[in-house]
Amino acid sequence: MRSWSAPDIVPLPGNGGPLRLHDTASDRVVTTEPGPRAGMYACGITPYDAAHLGHAFTYLAFDLVNRVWRDAGHDVDYVQNTTDIDDPLLERANATGEDWRDLAHREIDVFRADMAALRVLPPSSYVGVVESVGLIGELAARLRDTGSTYDLDGDLYFSAADAPRLGEIGHMDRAEMLELFGERGGDPERPGKKDPLDWLLWRAERPGEPAWDSPLGRGRPGWHIECSAIALDRLGPAFDLNGGGSDLIFPHHEMGAAETRCATGGPNAHAHLHVGMVGLHGEKMSKSQGNLVFVSKLRQEGVDPAVIRLAMLEHHYRTSWDWTEDEVPRAAARADRWRSALALGTGPEAEPVLAAVRAALAQDLDSPAALRAVDAWAEAALTQGGTDGGAPGLVRATVDTLLGVDLS
């Protein structure tokens, strides 16, 4: 599947240091230790509606990881999927009378445009589920051959009894998992299941639903196995970083990790990164709630994508927060101050700004601290002046390359 266009990256002098990130599974900040090539997987959208700010905030966090790793000298193999076949997509298509494929293609195009406008570095592999049905079916058959699955009216289920570490990523007990499973796409009450926490790997063909041939017969994938199969295919087992929004910890990432461990004997990733939720009026921003702020709509209203990005960077990626009417004016004022300082043509020396931004981002992607470092330089330039003619260029490059904000 086609990704989106990549922004130019301006090389910075020197190299950044190692990146430390909060690993959900160990619940501590750890030093990432990728080799020359870093492997990263982020769970993508289900394209039945345009991307909202909650999505954008998630992919902004992974974009910062990408930029920091690259600045430290690593090549980054970034994989992201898009769930272009799933129940919510079919339900929306049926409700609107639109072909599910047309709906998915249109919304994926909107998402691509939003990501390009926000200067999110594109994945090296942007992979749709439809194009991956074959390898997903092969993984489901591989799991069946381990004896960890069972058939229920033609559907293939993974047995939670064969996932002894289920709950370890999010530190959840069985009661917590049962409560969330029903809320987040699971079917704990389906008759005939051996355990309410057992999950669907392959859904047998139903009348009127799309289906594909597989070693398991005609049907389509369950949700969690999609990312497991794509990540194994593109990155292999035990890659450096896996994650998404914090609402994916359970069931999606727990169950995907169990599938990978069953198939390979090891973990799917060395570390797990999860991003806080963006809310509106005190509620998590979600399609089911209908309380969405769309990136595409903000852009249509004339909001500078750099301002949208700055508004999100003001919040640490692990913090849940509410979008308010003050976000755009506050971020626009910051962008104006920075641009005014750069327009002076000289300023205080900029090497300390580069060092401070690098240090902030290397410490668990502390983007608010990185913004404050640039704020301090801009304030000094505007109030005290400076004699370093190269400083504005280095500050501009720092902000562009590490924070992804275009100040041109």
From the N-terminal CA to the C-terminal CA, the straight-line distance is 31 Å
CATH architecture of the largest domain, by name, is 3-Layer(aba) Sandwich
List segments where confidence is low: pLDDT < 50 over at least 5 consecutive residues.
none
Largest beta-sheet characterization: 5 strands, parallel
Radius of gyration: 22 Å
Provide the structure class: alpha/beta
CATH superfamily of the largest domain: HUPs
Number of domains: 2
CATH class of the largest domain: Alpha Beta
Share of β-strand residues: 15-25%
CATH structural fold name of the largest domain: Rossmann fold
Number of strands: 14
Total count of helical runs of at least 4 residues: 13
Order of helices and strands: EEEHEHHEHEEHEEHEHEEEHHEHHHH
Q: Give helix % range.
A: 40-55%
User: Which shape, going by the Cα principal axes?
Assistant: elongated
Mean pLDDT: 96
Overview of the molecule:
The structure is a single chain. The chain has 408 residues and is α/β, with parallel strands linked by helices. The chain folds into 2 domains: 28-293, 3-Layer(aba) Sandwich (Rossmann fold), CATH 3.40.50.620; 325-403, Anticodon-binding domain of a subclass of class I aminoacyl-tRNA synthetases (Four Helix Bundle (Hemerythrin (Met), subunit A)). The chain has helices at 53-71, 87-96, 100-117, 133-145, 174-183, 224-235, 249-264, 295-300, 305-313, 327-342, 351-362, 367-384, 391-403, and strands at residues 20-23, 28-31, 37-42, 75-82, 125-128, 149-152, 155-158, 199-204, 219-221, 239-245, 269-275, 278-280, 283-284, 321-322. The strands form 4 sheets. Strands 5-4-3-10-11 form a 5-stranded parallel beta sheet, sandwiched between helices. A 4-stranded antiparallel beta sheet has the order 6-7-8-9. A hairpin with a 4-residue loop joins strand 1 (20-23) and strand 2 (28-31). Helix 11 runs antiparallel to helix 12 (367-384). The two termini are 31 Å apart.
